[in-house]
Amino acid sequence: MARMKFICDSERCIECNSCVTACKNEHEVPWGVNRRRVVTLNDGVPGERSVSVACMHCSDAPCMAVCPVNCFYRTEEGVVLHDKDTCIGCGYCSYACPFGAPQFPAAGTFGVRGKMDKCTFCAGGPEAHGSQAEFEKYGRNRLAEGKLPACAEMCSTKALLGGDGDVVADIFRNRVLKRGKGAEVWGWGTAYGSKQAGQPQGAKS
Amino acid sequence: QSNASAPAGGGASTTTSAPATPADDPAPATGGIQGQNIFDVKPEVKRDASSEAGYMQQSNGQRNAVQPGNNSPMWRDVKNGVTGFTTLPYPEAGNLIQGQVQYPGSKFTTAGEAWRQVRNHWIVPYGGALLLIVVLALAIFYFTKGKLGHADVTAGTGRIERFTPFERAAHWSNAIAFVILAVSGIIMAFGKFFLLPVIGQTLFGYFTYLLKNLHNFVGPLFVVSLVIIFLTFLRDNFPQRGDLRWLVKLGGLMGKGPEVPSHRFNAGEKAVFWGGVFLLGTIVVASGLVLDKLLPGLLYERATMQQAHMIHAVAAMLMMAVFLGHIYIGTIGMRGAYGAMRRGYVGEEWAREHHEYWYEDIKAGKIPAQRSKAMTIVDDTQRVRPV
Amino acid sequence: MLLTKKSGAASAHPRSPFVHSLQRGLTSAIPTMDRRAFLRRSGLGVGVGIAAGSLTLVKKAKAADGKGPAVGEGRIEVKRTVCSHCSVGCAIDAVVENGVWVRQEPVFDSPINLGAHCAKGAAIREHGHGEFRLRYPMKLVDGKYVRIPWDQAYNEIVARLNEIRKASGPDAVYWIGSSKHNNEQAYLMRKFVSLYGSNNCDHQARICHSTTVAGVANTWGYGAMTNSYNDMQNSKAALYIGSNAAEAHPVSMLHMLHAKETGTKMIVVDPRFTRTAAKSDQYVRIRSGSDIPFLFGVLYHVFKNGWEDKKYLNDRVFGMDKVREDVMAKWTPDKVEEACGVPEAEVFKVAQTMAMNRPSTIVWCMGQTQHTIGNAMVRASCILQLALGNIGVSGGGANIFRGHDNVQGATDVGPNPDSLPGYYGIVEGSWRHFARVWGVDYDWIKGRFSNPGMMSKPGITVSRWIDGILEKNEMIDQDPNLKAVVFWGHAPNSQTRGLEMKKAMDKLDLLVVIDPYPSATAAMAAMPGKPEDQNPNRGVYLLPAATQFETSGSVTASNRSIQWREKVIEPLWESRSDHMIMYQLADKLGFGKELVKNYKMQKVKGMDEPVPEDILREINKSVWTIGYTGQSPERLKAHMKLMAHFDVKTLKAKASVKDPVTGYDIAGDYFGLPWPCFGNPELKHPGSPNLYDTTKHVMDGGGCFRANFGVEKDGVNLLAEDGSHSVGSDITTGYPEVDHVFVKKLGWWNELTPAEQALAEGKNWKTDPSGGLIRVVMKNHGVHPFGNAKARAVVWNFPDPIPQHREALYSTRPDLVAKYPSHDDKKAFWRLPTLYKTLQQQNIADKLHEKFPLILTSGRLVEYEGGGEETRANPWLAELQQEAYVEINPKTAAARNIRNGDRVWLKSPTGAQLNVQAMVTERVGPDTVWMPFHFSGRWQGADMLAYYPSGAAPVVRGEAVNTATTYGYDSVTMMQETKTTICNVEKVA
Ligand SMILES: Nc1nc2c(c(=O)[nH]1)N[C@H]1C(S)=C(S)[C@@H](COP(=O)(O)OP(=O)(O)OC[C@H]3O[C@@H](n4cnc5c(=O)[nH]c(N)nc54)[C@H](O)[C@@H]3O)O[C@H]1N2
Ligand SMILES: Nc1nc2c(c(=O)[nH]1)N[C@H]1C(S)=C(S)[C@@H](COP(=O)(O)OP(=O)(O)OC[C@H]3O[C@@H](n4cnc5c(=O)[nH]c(N)nc54)[C@H](O)[C@@H]3O)O[C@H]1N2
Ligand code: HEM
Ligand code: HEM
Ligand code: SF4
Ligand code: SF4
Ligand code: SF4
Ligand code: SF4
Ligand code: SF4
Ligand SMILES: [Mo]
């Protein structure tokens, strides 16, 4: 089965935030919760680069490891999902996640956060595919519909690639070979471990 | 020149770190690798680029000028947790990846991962082990030595008021809060190992959700009651003559002989008071307030929360260990102790056996035997009557 | 213990249309853009999918009136539409379930955007919610907006209009149309105003690319982008000067970045280090307003090194020798550096890159157009491209990125004060041409005007309607002052001198705002102003217009491709489509029948609405000049359906494919039939992908420079030299434009059918209603109807025939003002007196540069669009930009003790004080500050929320930069000066 991954090509990303609003639109994510965000480094000076980041669906996911209620699970495609019914909103996943992916609808005192929300790789949640319950809790399940993540599909420059790790790597390889530079894939080392990063398929998951 | 086609220092946020490897490999094979050149396509290298003056200190713009497509300076910054620009006005939104740290017990790696290592490799297993060991030790102690003390709480003549109603109310509200916090804390930390497999994901989730919120709201109550407890019992917990002897002999509780004389509280209790209530209590409470986002003026970034959590969890484990002992002594471990706190009165016999100096002081009239205003205490057992 | 799905794992279903389009993805011919293969190989395309039809689409988006259908019982339709936020023209598939817009899908098939969007396009479905829109007509009563029925609104408005007309004549009303209207609505708007008897109408193009249109059309024929976003893939070098495409035309970067990966060199020239600059190979920072010194500095090196294309210049360009003399004398490297701040080496490098990597293209946008000398700046760019021989060349061209989604179309066929649709000048011949097409009597139209002279007098421009109110009556070049203004799809905060605009609004007798989001204008009108300005009898009305997703129609993208939008949903709340409102209003005003004579009506919400297709057919029948005649609704619809079959690089149909509905075969066509698409639809002209391209047959979209300026000037031949004709032309010399005499002379007259002959007799190609002249010369002889002439490097009818640098009226550099002073004042210019030199001198005398030592320039953020009320009402976008801010260089900030995030006052010579957030950044240099212009809703430090119609305030409000921008207008088009003025910034104490 395919192993789902994201690549954000910083040589291409122009910080247009399409990936961000595409996600909001597709999943009707409320104000304050951002499953994806775009960060620009060296803003306003030569060498400026932007990167779009969401959950990377890590191989050895720290969020999963620290969750007190074990509400995370991994799909056959390597997508890290969680069950909002059992999430207790403790925030541990957000402390552990290197990428700041987990989001909470509330940020009140008394540690009140509400149920964690994060990028699902557009793969919904534990409810039945395409059900109302799934949509309301996790947004749409594009993978089940045979579609890829909305953010990547609508990326203005195709900087953001999301899908079968082998394939996105292939596309990216084409690009890199053509331009002869900028082969760095952000976050892969952290998300998928150094060994397997080059071999997207070889996943201990 | 005014035209910024030459890099102007690379921006405020791009302090380049010390060289990672001489080859300036963007992905040195240490923990917490952020990016990877996954195809071995090396950036276009202009001859002599790496021999440029200050190659390793170059900003990303400068590096791009000599080696287009080589963004190592930027990735290095990213790896170090530099915060970039983002339009979202939320704290840490501009951070791509948590910076590298080494928490005690973790590797030098991204903060989140380091925290995970500390929690999952140390706090949870060793904290759990500690609690189990304490429980086990107390059990062994109980089964080998049985209950301590001889006198029943009402034994002997006279009624001495050991704890006023206020003291008892404070203590019990504190104790109840503590138990709730401890139970909920334990479920949060360890529940998935022992409870989840038994009751299943859904039930466990709902249950823990309840406990978690209970923990979050009872915590602040506990803070209040702890302060009261502390102030209430402070006076009698200052070190006094004889405490050292008590300590050296461990109160004589281990041996067969009589208990070492003590004032109102013996050195053991004082140790619990200072170490458990005051020191650990303060730490747990302070870190708990941070975790609850109740302290004003803090930013509550992830690093804050991780550190608060680690402190909280460690102190909480220790505190639970300490108070397991306290609770043991206060309930089944020592004859009469519970009754003293339950009803507030002890008999002279009990007082002399356990707190001889205190007893003497009362007898000498230095301490009144009845401190609370005389009133009717309606006790469910009706065993204590108005004096 | 890991979870598994609770139930209902997907089973294999037939492939959905989405899956199919997914699989098409990006064309595999372009390795670095490829996604099609990706999707196929991801294994997701086939089998796993749930067909759209069987999928239970769930939605939170309830129908506007709250009676959304229950989940899962809906009928699912997919409507293809086009993003309404910018001129790139990204296609969108809207998924509609029982009338509710529930989802939005990328259109991978689109050769323009290949499924890609920017933030705005990806958030477009919010239009289906429309929470913060105006829901019903409203009227200002005692400072508050109250709901009124449509009929009452019409009756009261019409009564007042009639009153005003009676008292002051038709010129007392000012009609501000919109580049947001589709072609049909924009065209109908011009027709509406014409039948009302006035030329007092305008739209956004005035304050956007009017200088471009005038400058470029006067240089080589047509005022439009010559090539396309797609064609930029063929460029070897690209110079972006005054364009921040990464934010303003993000999806264009898809093509450019791909090109870059195949070796294209990219140069960005801008006062700011923009997101576009970040992607460039060379970034050059110039002082705002100094484009001519820079461009001519580049040209200096081109000439000096003999890099100009000599043969091309000889064959196809007029006047370059004069320009050369001027440039070599005036723009030596030291002068260039003095004026724009760029040292010789950098300028040389730009010249070298552009010359050594041909075809090279130039991209410009608002950085060049919005100046008092915008018309000259854009011509300097044209001249550079001509010198390099880059125009009429694939990969070259002047890629002028246009603004609003349909600003090109609205310019082409919409409400311009100086022309009728298709740039037909407002002279009698044109009026007669249109009277015939509209089927109304010419004399009747004439009678509608206050006097026949006003028929051919260009109206006031939108940049200056306020002066039509505020200027003394004896100073203006029309009888009455303006008494009424109708904002029909235009924001107020997009025009300069906001403080004075408030005054003008207060003085009006009637203000009507017809807009889905009229709130910025509404709040400004309701906000208390100075009591002495207040007209006690003023009527303010807000009418809810439908958006472009609630109607259908055609829209012209920047590259001149025309796309057809299907109606996605019915108009929300009580809103009505613009063309319905035009019809209804005209009806009440007494010329409804004349307006819609040629159109069938369709019922929308039970009311009559002109059928957009019929309006387009009328355009097809009239707008010969720029080739809006071939794009029949049927052809456009076939293109929308068959998008997948057009090549991404050339835009040409890859094969012969028939549209099953219309039976139309797209073979040979270019996507969207980019205008000019000459002749009748039956001629099957394929559209023109790149203008003036002689390497193609005219029937394959080829062309040459337009013969629009005579055949000779001062004894010099203006027609193209021999041999420089388009491929396959029977005439190999230069030739003038085609008319009946010319065709007869050539002996081709008999090739017209008798019917055609009857109609074409005495006509030229632009007025021949049969299209016969065009058919014969193009199809039979490969001859271009508009002739074959030279482009003009010297535009003798402009104030500066050779572009001259002139400092902005408000400048921080008195030394340069002395050297490069502005124009002389003009007395009656677009009906208004216009100041240049006197004001500039006054400013120097007042030492304004000491009080306001910083250059203030403004521009765009990717998340917001235009005045911004629409996008700031979209929470998905609004969350991303929550504060109006000003970019300040760290040095400048430090000198003022300002730190990042501080509140600051931005003060300008207009007397405005803007309370905004400081963004301390090296994006701008120390002499410049920059503000996004999309904000409104805060006024000189105060919140205007109380003045909004209740429930119709946007999510984010902020200070509008245009209260701070100053007087200053282009010397040809009245473009406002929004890119270079002065200000100071201080910390809020
Ligand atoms: N997101 C978004 N996209 C849009 C729009 C929008 O509102 N929002 N609007 C659309 C419209 S209507 C238009 S017209 C286009 C405009 O698109 P652009 O013109 O590309 O956008 P601007 O940001 O107005 O201006 C471009 C650049 O000009 C620079 N500039 C300022 N002064 C000068 C100067 O004197 N010389 C030079 N060379 N550059 C200068 C500014 O720093 C700015 O970076 O965008 C369209 N696309
Ligand atoms: N300082 C400064 N000022 C500028 C600029 C700048 O760069 N700097 N740029 C200038 C430029 S290039 C432009 S184009 C203008 C843009 O400025 P505007 O065009 O005035 O701004 P928008 O907000 O896009 O205005 C369009 C209006 O049309 C409405 N609308 C949308 N769709 C429809 C429809 O279908 N029907 C009707 N009736 N209304 C509709 C919207 O709700 C909105 O109110 O701003 C100009 N002003
Ligand atoms: C002294 C009694 C307390 C004990 C024994 C205790 C114990 C614990 C334990 C074991 C955890 C779980 C750690 C883990 O799962 O890794 C925890 C978490 C937490 N505790 Fe406490 N705690 C105590 C008091 C408090 C107080 C006083 C507060 C607040 C004022 C507090 C707030 C929190 C918070 C916010 C968490 C994080 C988990 C969450 O938000 O659900 N605790 N505590
Ligand atoms: C179920 C839980 C608990 C039980 C059964 C219990 C029982 C008792 C008993 C019986 C005493 C009286 C000892 C004596 O007479 O000397 C006592 C004293 C005391 N307890 Fe507890 N206790 C509990 C929890 C706590 C907690 C959570 C705290 C504070 C964090 C606490 C703080 C104290 C203090 C301060 C004293 C007074 C002795 C001293 O100051 O040293 N107790 N407890
Ligand atoms: S990116 Fe964060 S949330 Fe996503 S799998 Fe990795 S650790 Fe978990
Ligand atoms: S917030 Fe929810 S998902 Fe995250 S660790 Fe806590 S329980 Fe697990
Ligand atoms: S994959 Fe889907 S859920 Fe994740 S960020 Fe992209 S759009 Fe949002
Ligand atoms: S959509 Fe693409 S280009 Fe735009 S910000 Fe996201 S990743 Fe970058
Ligand atoms: S705003 Fe322009 S670039 Fe963005 S999606 Fe719409 S049409 Fe495309
Ligand atoms: Mo524009």
UniProtKB/TrEMBL annotation, chain A:
Keywords: 4Fe-4S, Electron transport, Iron, Iron-sulfur, Metal-binding, Transport
Domain 4Fe-4S ferredoxin-type: 4-34, 47-77, 78-107
Annotated protein name in UniProt: 4Fe-4S dicluster domain-containing protein
Database matches in InterPro entries: 4Fe4S_Fe-S-bd, 4Fe4S_Fe_S_CS, 7Fe_ferredoxin, ET_IronSulfur_Cluster-Binding
Coiled-coil portions: none
Organism: Ramlibacter pallidus
Cofactor list: [4Fe-4S] cluster
Gene3D superfamilies according to UniProt: 3.30.70.20
Family annotation (CDD domains): DMSOR_beta_like
TrEMBL record, chain C:
4Fe-4S Mo/W bis-MGD-type domain span: 76-132
Protein name: Formate dehydrogenase subunit alpha
Cofactor(s) listed: [4Fe-4S] cluster; Mo-bis(molybdopterin guanine dinucleotide)
Family, per entry: Belongs to the prokaryotic molybdopterin-containing oxidoreductase family.
Keywords tagged on the record: 4Fe-4S, Iron, Iron-sulfur, Metal-binding, Molybdenum, Oxidoreductase, Signal
InterPro entries: Asp_de-COase-like_dom_sf, MoPterin_dinucl-bd_dom, Mopterin_OxRdtase, Mopterin_OxRdtase_4Fe-4S_dom, MopterinOxRdtase_cofactor_BS, TAT_signal
Organism this protein belongs to: Ramlibacter pallidus
Endpoints of the signal sequence: none
SUPFAM superfamilies: ADC-like, Formate dehydrogenase/DMSO reductase, domains 1-3
Claim: Phosphoprotein is one of the keywords in the record: no
Subcellular location: Cell envelope
Pfam families: Molybdop_Fe4S4, Molybdopterin, Molydop_binding
